[in-house]
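The passage that follows is intended for readers who have already worked through the single-chain material. We present the inputs for a multi-component assembly, then the predicted structure in tokenized form, and finally a short commentary. You are encouraged to pause after the input and sketch how you expect the pieces to fit together before reading on.
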Amino acid sequence: MTVVGTTPPPRLPVRDKAARHRTGGVSPMLTRLAAERATGVLVRASGTLYLAEGRVVHAESPLAPGLGVLLTAHGTLDARAWQDAVDRADEPGTADRLLVDGGRLAPGALELCHLSALYDAAYFALAPSSTPGRFRYGATHWLGSVHPVPVGAVEHETLRRRALLHRIWPDPATDSAPLERLDTAAAPAVAPRQSAVLARVDGLRTATDIARDLGRPAFHTLVAIRRLAAAGLVAPRTAHPGTDGSGPEHPDPGHGAPATPARLTPVGPRTAQHPDIALLKRVRDALEAL
Amino acid sequence: MPGIDECLLEAMRLPGARGAALVDWTSGLALGTVGEPPGGDHEAAAAEAAELARLAAEQRAFAPGDAEAEDADPPVEDLILSNRDSYHVLRFVRTSFDSSVFLHLWLARADGNLALARIRLGEMAGRLVLG
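Having made your guess, compare it with the prediction:
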């Protein structure tokens, strides 16, 4: 019997977790930008963060309804007034004054809604991602600075929100998949805010669609859906290979087809050819999110 | 026409006020805090108060009995909690957009005036979002 002396395989590349904890644990790049008091926009795979002197002043994500949707969905502002503010905001920072001074919106209401939208979009923008973020120095958001938030607070809140969702119902599948209702013999009573969500579960809509439909922050919708999932009333739609994916998705033509991010597309043809890679990426993201 | 911080500072001018916060009861996030944190930690206090507020807002038993009950979101106006040395008043803020926030005021029992605090918090909640 011969023993072949082989060199041990190289160590698997492991990201330095301790370093991530030191830097807040969400995005080292963001921490660095905060430290250098940078102004500009950080573009990540699932959203963007606007920084002014190292503080977060605005956040956007295709997975979260924007401030305009939140303010116009229930008639707080009419759509024309919002569009007017967007159009006339040629100088950065003028629009919030326009909204408030025109008497259309109380400053407290704008601040409250804006802050809520900021944390909401930041939650998605800071989701674990395999592609590195890009930062454009100097870029500002037209709305200016309503209520700047320290980067550390946004990162901390994002981690807290992940833990909160996990505590309610540990399966994240309901966050992104089309949802369907489950028939239960003895359905538990559903709180009014959750029943508004439940009424929109139709086998096609995702959490993002429902949030936009309700004009409700997306994270609030995720919380409601995880509670409904925990109660056994809602589940991610079981995939039917062949019928899933490429066909027309939306039951509601009035949606104006917003750009659907890749994460939302249910197993498309491209990813289907490489199930291992997609799965491995998801496993890695999930492990990193721990 | 106050913003969040002005509103909380106004709450702190009430006799016996020890701490105040504006909290989102779905996420448990404190959108603003002033003064002392009940229990020593603003974040934990906000999360715990949010749980209590959510339960109160979601139970049918606490909703008014009339037909308009369905429309009010949330159906509860405020929550009052007392212990040996303090009061907590949680006042729900009704907004014309979709939100789930409340004002949390912590009052020292010796100096606090619960009736006055309830009235003033209601006024502040209205002014915060209506200007």
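Commentary: Residues 26-161 of chain A form one domain. The longest strand of chain A covers residues 47-52. How closely did your sketch match?
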